[in-house]
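Hi everyone, sorry if this is the wrong subforum. Our group has a chain we'd like a structural model of before ordering constructs, and none of us has done structure prediction before. Sequence below.
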Amino acid sequence: MRKRPGIVSGPPGVRRGAAWLLLAAASTGYAAEGASLPTPAEQWKHALVAFGVSLLIGWVLARLLPFLWRFVFLPLAAHTPTTLDKRILDRSLRPAQFAVQVIAVHIGTRLTAEGLPVVTGHPAWPIYTGVLYVLQVLVLTSVAYAVARGVADWYAEEFAAKTASRLDDQFVVLFNKVAKFIFFFIALTIIFSHFNIQVAGLLATAGVASLAVAFAAQETLANMIAGLVLMVDRPFVAGDRIQMPNGQMGDVIEIGLRSTKILAFDNTIITVPNSDIAKSQIVNFSAPDPRVKIRTTLGVAYGSDMRRVKAILLEIMQAHPDVMKDPAPVVFFTEFAESSLNVLYVCWVADYRERFRIQDELNMAIKDRFEAEGVSIPFPQRDVHIRYHAAPEAGGDPARKS
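Answer:
Right subforum, don't worry. Here is the predicted structure as tokens:
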């Protein structure tokens, strides 16, 4: 090998290695200055050395990244008020290592091989650069997806884990799957565009396929979207007692991505699609607090002393230990009905789960007290009066009975 200006002196092995690196880095300069290029064999040697050196540098940098994460980035993240950055760093370390290796090879290749026409003119060069481009797109997409998963992990830890519903956890799993599909679909589109492959047909096919899937799974998608709405709006949570429009009542035991499960009072599970719940009027007895109002209409016979009736009802409610003193119980004379004088008595209890027991005890005490006081509770009745008219004389109108 003939000497060239700029080659450092030293032992033969060091001199040759330095010559390869310097000549590879300065090959573009040789071409620009009009100097003679290395021989084809030397160009291939320089290209292989540059590839090996860049691969080695990438490997070393990838091995240094965990130390950089552990001693620089993670300590900085520990001083921030949120754990979001820590979750992103945890997820992105391994994809970042692959990205550093691929990018190092790409930079080393570009800096050296561009000035070596024998290498860049070889038929395998476009294949090599194409594979390198694909790897870069994939590793950068992996880094972006890792960041998205870090955000999902942060949400699962900070919010989903603190709720009794499993809907948040299912949403995180669904988000990870959808995000993975979207990111790598975008990566595939970028790769196709780089190689001048028409993606319009692919996008049209994907659109038609998604439309077909949407029609086929219309009910499922509607329930899933309604589940997400329930998660955001939170009209009720697991453990709440609710009443549906059809009168069914029970305790919510699970809010899923497709349906909500309710435990009825007869120990049966009612499974309701989320789309039906989202568009219905739901009564939540647990919100805004466990207190519940008991409202009952009661009829007494005409002729009863209504002031005495109201006083009896107030005494019974005020004497019950589980009836709240604030708000105080009240009684209203509300209606002159066909068969009775109606009163409405209202009281509050501290826990909706005790409503039926307390109402039963109040009704029993009212019945006993009314019987002792001589107050009667009438049942609907109607008096029918039959009147007969005398028969008309002969030749007159036929007899009529009313």
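For your construct planning: The beta strands are 241-243, 249-255, 259-264, 269-273, 283-284, 292-300, 330-336, 341-349. The mean pLDDT is 80.
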